[in-house]
Recombination protein RecR (Fulvimarina uroteuthidis), 402 residues
Amino acid sequence: MAKPIAGPEIERLIQLLAKLPGLGPRSARRAALYLVKKREPILRPLAAAMADALDKVGECSVCGNIDTSDPCTICQDPARDQSVVVVVEDVSDLWALERAKALNAAYHVLGGVLSPLEGVGPEDLTIRQLVERVSKGRVKELVIAVNATVEGQTTAHYLMDQIDGMDVKATRLAHGVPVGGELDYLDEGTLSAAMRARTAL
Amino acid sequence: MAKPIAGPEIERLIQLLAKLPGLGPRSARRAALYLVKKREPILRPLAAAMADALDKVGECSVCGNIDTSDPCTICQDPARDQSVVVVVEDVSDLWALERAKALNAAYHVLGGVLSPLEGVGPEDLTIRQLVERVSKGRVKELVIAVNATVEGQTTAHYLMDQIDGMDVKATRLAHGVPVGGELDYLDEGTLSAAMRARTAL
């Protein structure tokens, strides 16, 4: 565009909104227009919520979760079994497991997976902090809940090497058919894993 | 969810983001997570841009465009032919026409279309303001660029009735085959309109 359609303030808002995942340039324009039209009901509270998040939200120094307190709510929760630590790649995985109420335990966010191709080495992840956490002796089980990708599995193996000889049990999520999933759409690896791990009906 | 995953600040951010067009609950979560992770590069400037928009952006009292100045940049532009007014339903249509550099003229944003079913009458739109603008005598042509929907056409006809007898020419956008469009995918109405308005090659 030769000249901006609206003022530079709106153009800037559009450009920043377009950087959010899930919003392209076109939907960012729609979102910006929606915001300036819904000034009081949406724009004002959203601007306030962002300022608030900017102010209060940070990373938990223990597990890497994102929260308003440090250590985070999960790390401080006495009702959780803090001796079981679920190791995930990303905070979004932590959130997904929490939504599923999968396990009432603590977490450790790696911040990614090992990927030589993308130049991600062990020092880019929070592996050292995890090993430190385990070496303090209060962790009895590590549930390695990384994604079932090549990088995820490489990371899991690297992690196993690091905790080798320590007094901690390592487990992983079961493979199998997703609940509600159709066999026809599943890959062979999942199907044979599900078959091997079949259970009595 | 029984209890919030993260602090109430993040939950609130997610809920507000989910109200934006194009973002559902799932993508709002991803966006919120992205924002708190990209604190400095994205969250801080976006919060500032929103505060800025809240502060400065408003509706143009002449044409209904959204801008930081009132009258808006377009209404104040001496390089535009202010005697030609393009009538659109929404600011997004104005933006679309501006992106296309369709006409170097002024605009009038109706704020919607007449829709008895949804209870939208003439007093809910800026029709009175438009008639006033025309009656001042400086407008020579109204390009009625409402959408080619039933409501849009009803609104166009109502508008024509209102300016009946005034010294102003009313025009509408040409119907035809979209540039790059495939005939096979076009409806019969568009095809026959394009055929009737065929031009010499």
User: Anything to note?
Assistant: Residues 8-56 of chain A form a domain with the Helicase, Ruva Protein; domain 3 fold (CATH 1.10.8.420). The longest strand of chain A covers residues 81-88. Chain A touches chain B through 55 residues (CB under 8 Å). The two ends of chain A are 64 Å apart (CA to CA).
